[in-house]
Amino acid sequence: MTLVVHGLGATEGEARIPSSGLPGTRVVVTLPGHGKAPDAPPGYWNYATIAADVLAIADEVEATRAVGVSLGAGALTRIAAERPDRFERLALLLPAALDRPRDVAATWSFERLADAVGDPEELRKLVAADLPPGAEVGDYAEQRAAALMRLEDALRELPEQAPLADAAPLSSVGSDVLVVGATDDPLHPAEVAKAVAAAFARARLEIFPSPAPMLTHRRELRGLLVDFLG
After folding, report:
1. Cβ-based neighbours of 60, under 8 Å, separated by 6 or more
2. How far apart are CA 22 and CA 63, in angstroms?
3. 3-state class percentages of the chain: helix first, strand second, coil last, to nearest 5
4. 78-92 CB burial, b ≥16 within 10 A, e <16
5. What pTM was computed for the model?
6. Phi and psi for 181 in degrees, rounded to 5?
7. How far apart, in whole angstroms, are the C-alpha atoms of residue 64 and residue 140?
8. Residue 141: Cβ within 10 Å count
9. What are 120-154's pLDDT values in tens digits?
10. Which candidate, 147, 186, 152, places its Cα nearest to that of 45?
11. Measured in Å, how far apart are the chain's first and last C-alpha atoms?
């Protein structure tokens, strides 16, 4: 049983990408404010609350493995620190932060997105500007912009936070861990992926030469996850 936790503003299709081809049963979480889930209540957007929700779902479905992307990776990292033996295997894709908030440039990018909430065309332009040139993405920019329209509070609050105050507890985690980073993604720096991998006792690090490996290296990423979780 594998739990899959998406990133902030993920479209429904995007949220399912990491689950494709995985063995066994897969449960894809839909966080508040995403897909058909209700909007988040006031004060929801902090790693403690999100991690508690994710853990409750994991316990309900008896998940033994988990995959998290960006925000989802942060939530799983917090769970691992608090419950070091909860999962047999963890795949943390594009972690954005560990024990300190995002850098100034990333925070500014989120502020621009938050300021554009209410202006669908401006939001679409900002999303499109960050997509890899030549990538076959269909109407992804429109879908992601629509998803972000519901997430102004999250866009303003999460970049100022980190999943953990101290990464030291991760050294006692018993899980096998796969950490995936990217070389050219300003919102998910490779340095953060390296720090996350170094914090765990049993972690493997893979870095893709891409600004968005879930779009540009989907086949390779799928093979990596299937091999690790299979």
Report:
1. none
2. 13
3. 45, 15, 40
4. bbbbeebebbebbbb
5. 0.96
6. -125, -175
7. 31
8. 18
9. 999 999 999 888 876 667 888 899 999 999 999 99
10. 152
11. 11
Which string of DSSP letters, residue by residue, matches 155-204? Answer: HHHGGG--S-S--GGGGG--SEEEEEEESS-TTS-HHHHHHHHHHSSSEE
Q: Which amino acid does the sequence have at 62?
A: E
**Cα separation of 64 and 211, whole Å?**
30
For 207, the token pair is: 């870095």
Bridge-partner residues for 208, per DSSP? Answer: 182
Q: What is the DSSP string of 5-56?
A: E--TT--HHHHHGGGTT-SS-EEE---TTSTTSPPPPTT--SHHHHHHHHHH
Task: Give me the pLDDT at residue 138, please.
Answer: 80
Burial of 169 (0-12, 13-18, 19+ CB in 10 A): middle
* Count of alpha carbons within 13 angstroms of residue 44, beta-carbon side: 16
Which of the 8 DSSP states describes residue 101?
P
Over residues 181-222, the pLDDT tens digits come to: 999 998 999 999 999 999 999 999 999 999 899 888 999 999
Burial class of 153 by CB neighbour count within 10 A (0 to 12, 13 to 18, 19+) = middle
Amino acid residing at 212: A
DSSP for 63-89 reads -SEEEEETHHHHHHHHHHHHSTTS-SE
- Which tokens go with 182? 């990217």
What percent of the chain is modeled with pLDDT above 90? Answer: 88
What is the biggest distance separating any 2 CA atoms in the chain, rounded to whole angstroms?
Answer: 47
Instruction: Provide the 8-state DSSP code for 117.
Output: T
Question: How many Cα atoms sit within 13 Å of 165 on the Cβ side?
Answer: 3
